Amino acid sequence: MLSRHLIRNASIARVGMLSCARPQLRFISFKQEDQPRIRIGSTAPNFQVDTTKGKIDFHEYIGNEWVILFSHPADFTPVCTTELGAFSRLKPEFDKRGVKLIGLSTEGVDSHNEWVKDIEEVETQGEKFGFPIIADGKKEVAFKYDMVTEDDFKNLESGMVATVRSVFIIDPNKKIRLTLTYPASTGRNTSEILRVVDALQLADSKGIATPVDWKKGDEVIIPPTVSDEAAKEKFGEFRKVKPYLRYAKV
């Protein structure tokens, strides 16, 4: 275990030296006015990076599938370890839904690979860790997707920067469909992220909305833009609570 943390410290030192000796490695601009606007419906910014599974072009990685991109403050941190383990255990469920997973922190591939060994030891019960982790040493992705705190944004030009716990669900058209941002201290709910994928995919395929706390198999909401006649033709019998609040099974 000690050797892994020594590798991590060496990785941090290397990043620090590179940031001083080779400034051309940094992203071209960290000016706030140059930062892409990430909104629901925005095209996910593209990037090319090293990962634990080799180099990727992000848009090529998305291909024609859904993707969940999520960031972590740093390697070898306790909350992140539990999260990555949980995502890896849930990977078969995401696979069933045609969803790829990809994580990120601003440390290097060597550090990530050592961290994965810990995750496999303590979180996946020896099962192989199932998806790539981005090595965002240049902090390009952290900048493009606004994955840092207010204070760290001011320090993007220098040294290591910890990302916040960002989550982006991206559809096959490379459009942002959900954004979540958690503080570094708060672990995410992987079941909620899976639930949102189910809701989005059902809404896209059936033209419905989902109510509070909806889960797969529950009633859905018929949009107000659909008339009662059209709703009956499309869904069969439905439950009308108010003219604007109608429930159906799909």
From TrEMBL:
Keywords, alphabetical: Antioxidant, Oxidoreductase, Peroxidase, Redox-active center
UniProt-listed InterPro entries: AhpC/TSA (IPR000866), Peroxiredoxin_AhpC-typ (IPR024706), Peroxiredoxin_C (IPR019479), PRX_1cys (IPR045020), Thioredoxin-like_sf (IPR036249), Thioredoxin_domain (IPR013766)
Residue numbers annotated as active site: C80
Gene Ontology MF annotations: thioredoxin peroxidase activity
Record-level GO BP terms: cell redox homeostasis; cellular response to oxidative stress
GO CC annotations, alphabetized: cytosol; mitochondrion
Residues annotated as domain Thioredoxin: 38-202
Biological role: Thiol-specific peroxidase that catalyzes the reduction of hydrogen peroxide and organic hydroperoxides to water and alcohols, respectively.
Record family assignment: Belongs to the peroxiredoxin family. Prx6 subfamily.
Protein name (database record): Thioredoxin domain-containing protein
Organism: Spathaspora passalidarum (strain NRRL Y-27907 / 11-Y1)
